Amino acid sequence: MTAPRYALLFPGQGAQFPGMAQRFHDASPAVRDLFDLAESRTGLPLREICFRTERTDQARTDWNQPAVFLAGLAGWYALVEQAARRGAEHPPVCVAGHSLGHFTALAAAGALSATDALDLVARRGELMHRASQAADGAMATLIGLSEPAVADLVRAAGDDAVSVAAVNGPDQVVVSGAGPAVAAVSQRAVAAGAERVVPLAIALAAHSPLMAPADAGFAPLVADADLREPRVPVVLNTTGRASRDVAEIRADLHRHMLAPVRWWQCLATARDAGVDLLVDAGPGRTLSKVLRRDLPADAVHSLDHPRGLEALLP
Question: One digit per residue, pLDDT tens: the chain, 314 residues?
Fold first, then answer.
C-alpha cells in the first residue's frame, strides 16, 4: 500500500472530552513519557484532567490549554512510535493547528521542543484564564454566512465589543467578544439568513481585544521563545501561509492572541501543497466534523479511532 501524503491538523480549545488521548497513553510508552513530562512541567494532574474529569470542568482555560495540547501531541507521538516500529517513517507534508492547536503543530514540527511548548501553553492558559475572569466573554460560530457578511454585522455593532475571531469555512465564521455583544450579533446573523448559531462551550473571548491583557503578558515569552527551523512547513494562523522561517513564525505568534484565525485559508494552503488527506490528530474529531461540511469525506481522516494510525502508514 502506498502511504498517503497528508497534512497533520491539531484542534484548539473546546476539543476536550473525558478520556481524551487515553487510547494512545495506554498503548504507547512514548506517550506515557510525554504525560510524565507534562505533569512535571505544569504541576497539573493531567492524567486526571484528560481521562476522568467532566467536560464542563475540563473547559477551565488554565487546565484546558495544556490538556488539549498534550492530547493532540500524544496522537503525533503515537503515530511516530508506530511508524518507527514498522521502519516506515512517514512525516506529514505540512502541519497546522487551530488557535491553541498552533502550538501543538509547532511542537510536532520541531519548531518548539515539547518542554518549551508545554511551558508556553501553560502560561498562555493562565494568562487567558485571568483575562477571561475580568471580562464577560463569549464566542459563537455563525453558520451559513460568509466572512464579509459577518464582518458587516460586526461593524454595524458600532464598537470594539465584538470581532471576527476565526474563519473556519466559506460560511463558518466565529465571533468573539463581550457576551451581550456576541449575543446581539448572533441574533442579527439569524435575521440576516444564518442557518444557525452555535455558542462555543468556553467562557472566553479568544482572538478578540478582550485578550489584550493576556497578550501583553505573553509577548515577552514569545520574544524569548527558543524557536527553531521546523522539519516541515507550519501553516500560520494569522496569514494562512506555510513557513519554515523562524522570524516569520515568531511574528505570527506575536499577532496570534488577538488576530483572527484564518483557518479556511490554512486548509487551502495545505491542500495546495499536494496532500491526499487532511488528518485530524485530535483529541476527538472536532476538526473532522467541521471539515466534512465543506470537503469530501475521503479527503479527511481522524487519528482518534481504533485504526486511525494504521491507515497513514505503508
Answer: 577 899 999 999 989 999 999 999 999 999 999 999 999 999 999 999 999 999 999 999 999 999 999 999 999 999 999 888 887 778 999 999 999 999 999 999 999 999 999 999 999 999 999 999 988 899 999 999 999 999 999 999 877 799 999 999 999 999 999 999 999 999 999 999 999 999 997 878 999 999 999 999 999 999 999 999 999 999 999 999 999 999 999 999 999 999 999 999 999 999 999 998 999 999 988 888 888 877 888 888 888 877 777 767 66
Strand 300-302 relative to strand 277-280: parallel, antiparallel, unpaired? parallel
Q: How many CA atoms lie within 13 A of 93 on its CB side?
A: 18
Residue 184, C-beta contacts closer than 8 angstroms, at least 6 positions apart: 157, 162
Q: Residue 308 gets which letter from DSSP?
A: T
Q: Are 31 and 82 in contact (CB under 8 A)?
A: no
Helix (H, G, I), strand (E, B) or coil at 143: strand
Helix (H, G, I), strand (E, B) or coil at 157: coil
- The reply to whether the predicted model has a pTM over 0.70 is yes
Give 237's DSSP letter: T
In degrees and rounded to multiples of 5, residue 197 shows phi and psi of -120, 130
